[in-house]
Write a structure and sequence with these properties.
The complex is a heterodimer of chains A (about 300) and B (about 600).
Chain A lengths: L3 E10 L2 E11 L4 E5 L6 H8 L7 E6 L2 E2 L4 H5 L2 E4 L11 H12 L4 H10 L13 H13 L5 E5 L7 H16 L3 E6 L2 H7 L2 E6 L2 E7 H6 L2 E8 L12 E7 L2 E7 L3 H9 L3 E7 L3 H17 L5
Parallel strand pairs in A: 3-8, 3-9, 6-7, 7-8
Antiparallel strand pairs in A: 1-2, 1-4, 4-5, 9-10, 11-13, 11-14, 12-13
Helix pairs in contact in A: 3-5, 4-5
Chain B lengths: L2 H5 L3 H37 L3 H10 L3 H7 L10 H34 L2 H6 L7 H28 L6 H28 L3 H24 L2 H4 L3 H6 L10 H23 L23 H40 L1 H11 L3 H33 L4 H4 L5 H34 L6 H9 L2 H17 L6 H19 L3 H4 L17 H24 L1 H29 L4 H6 L2 H19 L1
Helix pairs in contact in B: 2-5, 2-7, 4-9, 5-7, 5-8, 5-9, 7-8, 8-9, 8-12, 13-15, 13-17, 15-17, 15-19, 15-20, 17-18, 17-19, 17-22, 19-22
Classes of the chains: A alpha/beta (about 300), B mainly alpha (about 600).
Chain lengths: ~300, ~600
């Protein structure tokens, strides 16, 4: 059974369609990345999954239960970190953590203290004195210290420093290794790339691409830089080669993943001295989708 | 498990959380309302010792201006201290209770949602309606407690005319109408998209209810019955003790509350049923100037204080006519005052009213300047200081605004007074005289503004000392005659250096000296503010936590309410003034004769 199953989810706010037939499936022990620009519908999707907004159309099941109707049952096994954490100004961080843990069930003091130490958070300060990063740490500690089966994290690292981001990534991997699922919404692509096996890209309320990172990469181009003994010629005529730049013996270009074999064979005739091949970053994926829709929107075809 | 049972799950835990959050505010509000009620109830019997006293005030309370302000009166012969207390205090205290409820419900039912705290709680295994339930429970608890404590308190005072039934009715009016306004706010919290809009509409509802009642009470009782406040005064507490309006209010509260719950349940989180009005996409030319920006920041504050000062002026002005008639009857007093100063009592009274209004006008003048301090503490001035705007220029813009506000407040005070005099008197004072007497106080206000700049620049941590000083000025104004304070003590108040132009000539020297003090203090404060940013920040860090609390206790009344609240009014109420005037003169008269 899938942990999360979203089928044909549509959400309208008046005339505005925030989500348009969104489909998602998250399996057990999976870290699922959810990426998209601001206002694409990431937080709306999450709020529907948490039963805070009612879907206009479609089905959202978590642990096989309806996200709206069985919200309370589902929430017993879900931990959530919102993107913009606001806490109760006159409670201390430690008090808030206990309070949130207590409402879910028992408090595992050992785990809580361990996490406080790892995130380097002073729990004795009032929440009104915390910076954005520290408020986020409070929510993260409360989430990871709870014994949940699904972790829903909405841009959880936007206020953290790089060191804390690493701790966060460790925590995510630990819960994954324990067989839990993580749904990570983000626009920090490097983070998603480091953590997630599967991703879905959302834009203007539609999922424009989804699958494993390997699948997605397959569809795009690698960036290559090559130095040869003799000047290369004939490369521009090969299928799948783009953005070719030649500087004497040093050339750089992009190549479609499926045409890689032919290109390497052609290059080897000229005596390869140095070869660098960078797989596409998520950013490239993202930008390609973005460019693609921009162009089709403005009516300029690419090929 | 059925869905029904789950909707409310976790209510008690959340109630505890909310109560813990609000406990300080709740205690302060309850204690404030209770103390004011009980203290005034105790103060009335000695205030109206003789039947003559009672009759005099009973007649005054029949005056349409009084009816508009306090609600309809009863036949003058039926008055006793309890009836006077009920008539004078009930409506204003109900308004205070309504304000408490609006602020409380606005926070729990909208602000916690706006700021994402409800989102965090709702991701936990708690029911969809749990937070709303908890908020409702808190409201019930607070209003119920207020009703009970007021009832017990008044009953226990054992004042003649205040039996247990009427005491409890008095308390229940608070509780029931508190709930009614809480429900209205809960409803607006569903309709509006932001806390600000929800509370603003709730306050607008309160104000409209008050105005409809005022208009109805003066002209047509049926009109009054549209307004919940019109029902409240028709309980006729301590007179006929009618419980029906209380039941009315409870039914009204229940209906509005149920509707609010229903709307909340079908509403998406973070939305409202009425869309938020769109703002401008470009900054106006006015906003793009530095003074324009400052005025815009303070706009609501300035406008509400302006209206408040106007209304206060008008309410003082509206009793002047009655006061004159009343005082003319007391021959011995007339003789005494005429012989002593050669001025009519009316002019003396107006002079004092202007002094009071000027003191009140100085509060927004100082608030405008203190805004700079709080803006800096919230790091909102950094975008300016990181651009070619010096702290010196920023302070100058705030000071300029404060000077403008002081002029506006004095004008509004004089205008309010004059329009009421014009409406009620056959031969009102010339507007020119009133305005001149009001504007003559400006140097005192400027001196205070200068002091505010100096204190922000030199020692922002101690800024609240200025409020303490203002309290002292109030104290001097009220009690200097009664307590026969030595002159050096009264001279510490800047307001004592302002000539009362209704009876004396303008003393240009005092005014010039005060203005000069204002200018020097402002300039010095400006410099310090501009130079000492590093040092100030240290002070701020060290002092910020404690100092916010201090501000809260000293001037909570002024900051919270924006308009002079009912207690502010009470403290400077014409009755208490008149009474103190009489007491003082009787005392002196007795001693002299």
């Amino acid at each position: 059974m899938s942990m999360v199953e979203v089928k044909g989810l549509t959400k309208k706010f008046g005339n505005f369609t925030a989500l348009d037939h969104v489909d998602l499936t998250i399996e057990e022990g999976e870290i699922y990345g959810f990426i998209g620009p601001n206002g694409a519908g990431k937080s709306t999707t999450i709020r529907i999954m948490l039963g805070m907004l009612k879907p206009t159309e479609g089905e959202v099941k978590i642990f096989g239960k309806d996200a709206w109707k069985d919200a309370v049952e589902i929430h017993k096994r879900v931990a959530y970190v919102p993107g913009d954490v606001n806490l109760w100004p006159n409670l201390t961080g430690g008090e808030v953590i206990d309070l949130l843990l207590k409402m879910r069930g028992r408090v595992d003091a050992r785990k809580r203290d361990e996490l406080l130490e790892r995130f380097d958070l002073d729990p004795t300060k009032k929440c009104r004195t915390y910076s954005k990063g520290n408020r986020q740490k409070v929510a993260l500690v409360a989430a990871f210290a709870s014994d949940a089966d699904l972790y829903i994290l909405d841009e959880p690292t936007s206020g953290l420093d790089p060191l804390m981001e690493r701790i966060f990534q460790e925590c995510v991997r630990e819960v994954r290794d324990a067989g839990k699922s993580v749904f990570l919404s983000s626009h920090i692509l490097s983070e998603v790339e480091k953590l997630c096996e599967k991703v879905a890209i959302i834009r203007q309320g539609r999922i424009i691409d989804s699958g494993t990172l390997a699948d997605l990469r397959h569809l795009t181009r690698n960036h290559m830089t090559v130095e040869t003994k003799e000047p290369v010629h004939g490369l521009e005529n090969l299928k799948g080669v783009h953005h070719l730049v030649m500087e004497n013996l040093r050339i750089s270009f992009q190549v479609d993943t499926e045409e890689m074999d032919g290109v390497i064979r052609h290059l080897s005739q000229f005596g390869i001295q140095k070869l660098e091949c960078t797989p596409p970053t998520l950013e490239d994926l993202f930008l390609r989708h973005y460019e693609g829709s921009e162009r089709s929107a403005s009516g300029i075809g690419e090929e | 498990m059925t869905m029904k049972g789950q909707l409310a799950k976790g209510t008690f835990k959340i109630t505890k959380l909310i109560l813990r959050q609000d406990r300080f505010k709740i205690i302060v509000w309850l204690a404030g309302i209770l103390f004011t009620t009980l203290a005034t109830a105790l103060a009335y019997p000695p205030l109206y010792k003789t039947d003559e006293d009672v009759q005099a005030i009973a007649l005054t309370l029949q005056n349409p201006a009084m009816v508009a302000m306090l609600g309809p009166g009863y036949p003058p012969e039926d008055y006793n201290t309890a009836v006077i207390f009920g008539h004078e205090m009930l409506l204003f205290t109900v308004v205070a209770v309504a304000v408490m409820n609006i602020l409380m419900v606005g926070k729990t039912m909208r602000q916690d949602e706006d700021e994402g705290r409800i989102e965090l709680v709702r991701s936990l295994p708690v029911g969809r309606l749990a937070y709303l339930n908890a908020a409702a429970l808190e409201v019930f608890l607070v209003n119920g407690l207020l009703a009970l404590l007021t009832g017990f308190g008044l009953g226990a005072l054992d004042i003649s005319g205040m039996d247990w039934e009427s005491s409890f009715l008095y308390g229940c009016v608070f509780g029931a109408f508190g709930l009614a306004f809480a429900s209205v706010t809960a409803l607006f919290a569903q309709l509006m998209e932001t806390t600000r809009a929800a509370t603003m509409f709730s306050f607008a509802f309160l104000i409209v209810a008050y105005i409809i009642r005022a208009a109805g009470d003066v002209s047509n009782e049926m009109v009054s019955m549209i307004s919940p406040l019109g029902w409240a005064v028709r309980t006729e507490v301590f007179y006929s003790n009618d419980w029906r309006p209380v039941i009315f209010a409870l039914v009204f509260a229940a209906a509005a509350g149920v509707l609010a719950f229903y709307l909340n349940n079908i509403r998406d989180m973070g939305t409202g049923f009425l869309p938020e009005r769109k703002g401008r996409s470009r900054a106006s030319r006015f906003l793009q100037t530095l003074p324009g920006f400052v005025v815009r920041l303070e706009r609501t504050q300035i406008v509400s204080w302006g209206i408040g000062v106007f209304l206060l002026g008008a309410s003082y002005g509206s009793i002047v006519n009655d006061l004159e008639t009343y005082l003319q009857e007391l021959d011995y007093l007339q003789d005494f005052l005429n012989a002593d100063s050669g001025n009519s009592l009316l002019e003396q009274f107006l002079g004092l009213v202007l002094a009071i209004l000027s003191l009140i006008g100085s509060v927004p003048t100082v608030i405008v300047l203190f805004k700079l301090k709080s803006e800096e503490q919230k790091n909102r001035m950094e975008p300016f200081y990181s651009r070619p705007v010096s702290r010196y220029r920023m302070m100058a813009a705030f000071f300029g605004t404060a000077v403008g506000v002081s002029v506006l407040m004095q004008a509004m005070a004089a205008l309010g007074l004059w329009s009421a005099l014009y409406a009620t008197m056959e031969e009102p004072l010339a507007a020119v005289d009133l305005f001149r007497s009001a504007f003559v106080y400006l140097p005192a206000l400027w001196a205070l503004a200068g002091a505010a700049v100096l204190i922000i620049g030199f020692f922002p941590k101690a800024a609240n000392l200025l409020w303490l000083y203002l309290v002292y000025c109030f104290f001097v104004l009220y009690l200097k005659d009664l307590l026969d304070l030595p002159e050096w003590l009264t001279r510490l108040s800047v307001f004592e250096h302002i000539p009362d132009t209704l009876k004396e000539n303008i003393d240009w020297l005092s005014l010039t000296v005060l203005t000069a003090i204002a200018a020097v203090a402002a300039a010095a404060g400006d410099r310090l503010q501009a130079e000492g940013s590093g040092r100030l920040n240290i002070f701020r860090c060290a002092g910020s936590a404690g100092h916010r609390k201090g501000a809260g206790t000293i001037c909570a009344g002024w900051e919270k309410g924006k308009l002079p609240g009912p207690y502010g009014f009470r403290a400077v109420s014409p009755f208490s003034y008149m009474k103190s005037l009489l007491d003082a003169s009787q005392f002196t008269h007795g001693a002299g004769g």
